[in-house]
Structures are given as structure tokens and as C-alpha cells.
Amino acid sequence: MFRREWHERSMIVLQSTPAACLLRIRQTGVLPPAAEHDLNAALADSRLVEPRQDIVVEGRASDLVVALLDGFACRYKTVARGRRQITGLLLPGDFEDTQPALGGVPDHSVATVTACRVAMVPRRVLERLFRDHKAIEYGFQCFTQVELRTLREWLLNMGQRMADRQVAHLFCELLHRMGDIAMVVDRSFSLPFTQEELADVLGLSTVHVNRVLQELRRAGLVRLDQRRLTIVDYDALRILGEFDPAYLEMPGPIGASLAPARY
């Protein structure tokens, strides 16, 4: 389903502001005006990609790095019989590769979940930004560290937590991540993922995900309406999911004061 190719005819060239990417990298420390200018220039040209299109294909090398300016995407892998495991969610401001100098052949695919606005940045441009601006290089190092922490937390979630705790933990994580990019209002945010996609994140069946969502609603912990999730009782949801946002904090002395907002 997600193995469609990247066709030029499916993309619209836009001029957009990379506000989400700038917001994300500012969270790792002070971004000097010259660094912000150069990063902004690297992200200036963007394209609109339709939902459920591959933008990175496993096994296919590319000299471009995708920056997600708007919309939702995911990293995923598949097995021979076609079943898929989503291994990461990309939100506005995320880069699909935070170590562009390493290059190589990707061992996973990246696909849009919703319509997405993306910038395709040549690796050599990012490498030059790293050389010229240590704040940008440090920011990408922080992104890598948080991604690794998040992946370990997901492994723990799938391996050791019951289904209701898995869903609670994921919803708390999304609340914090989306709050960091100013996409939360009154503990409410867009949740464009289908139940099948949530199942592919959590390693559960769609039926099981549906059952858990109904339980969380009945317990008064969450409300789902028109692909929008409202956390009704954050404290109870956090306790249920055994959620500690420390793994989402930016590492190092700069990030020590950047703990995710309390909800």
C-alpha cells in the first residue's frame, strides 16, 4: 500500500516558510541570525506530496534529505508477506535523516500519512551548514539522540506494556511532541492516523486498537472527534501509560532547561 514511487507529476512546487523546522532547531539552543538565514534558505523550496506516498524507499540511495514542513509521515519496514511495522512518526519540523553525512542506502522507507509539504535538501547543503554553523550541527545531534531514545521507549512499550498502556503512552508522547511545535490547544491536537496505522505503530491488531480506544473513551481519559484527539484527564492517562517525558528532552547542557511542557 505504501510502496508507490515518487512521481514528479504528483508534486506541486511551492514557496513556503520552514517555520516548524526552525522552531524545532531553536529548541536545541540559540540559533544565530546567520545560521537561521542559511537554514531558511536551504528549506525555502517545498513540494506538496499526496497522502500515502513513499518519499524514501528502502534500498534506494538518495543524495537528498527530506525535511517535513507540514503534515504527518512515518518510517516503516515490511516483511515478505507485506505486513508493515511503523518504526517512527514524523511531525512538522522533523528531518527524515539527521545524519546526512553518513549517506548510504536506507534500511527503511518513509511515507506520507497525510498530504505533506516537504523540502528536499541536498546532503552536501546540510554538510555545508554543519561546517559553517555549529549550532545547526549540534541541533541535528540532539535530534539523533532523541530519536534513539524514542525508539528504545517504543521497543519497551511493545515488548512489556499491555495494549491500553501502550496506547496511553503513545498519546502522551504525541501530546508532548506536538506541544513542542505549537500544535496543541487545550490538550487537543490533530490525530490523522487510522486505526490500522495505529495498529502498525503499536504492533497490535486493528480490532485490539479499536477496543482500547473505546475503553479509554468510556473511562473519560480521551475524546476522539473528527480525527482530533483531546486528552481529558492527562494525569490519569500518564499514570496508566507509565509515561515519563524525560526521553523527549533535548540532551546536553543546552537542553537541560528545555523539559517538555507540563500538561
Provide key terms for this protein.
4-stranded antiparallel β-sheet; 263 residues; disordered N terminus; alpha+beta; Jelly Rolls; 21% strand; Arc Repressor Mutant, subunit A
Structural commentary:
This protein has 263 residues and is α+β, with helices and mostly antiparallel strands. The protein folds into two domains: 141 residues, Jelly Rolls, CATH 2.60.120.10; 95 residues, Arc Repressor Mutant, subunit A, CATH 1.10.10. The strands form three sheets. Strands 1-2-8-4 form a four-stranded antiparallel sheet. A four-stranded antiparallel sheet has the order 3-7-5-6. A three-stranded antiparallel sheet has the order 9-11-10. The radius of gyration is 18 Å and the shape is globular. The relative contact order is 0.14.
Question: What's the quick description here?
Answer:
The chain has 263 residues and is α+β, with helices and mostly antiparallel strands. It has helices spanning 19-26, 33-42, 123-132, 134-160, 163-180, 195-202, 206-218, 234-241, 252-255; strands spanning 12-15, 45-49, 54-56, 64-70, 73-78, 84-90, 109-112, 116-122, 188-190, 222-225, 228-231. The chain has two domains: 8-148, Sandwich (Jelly Rolls); 161-255, Orthogonal Bundle (Arc Repressor Mutant, subunit A).
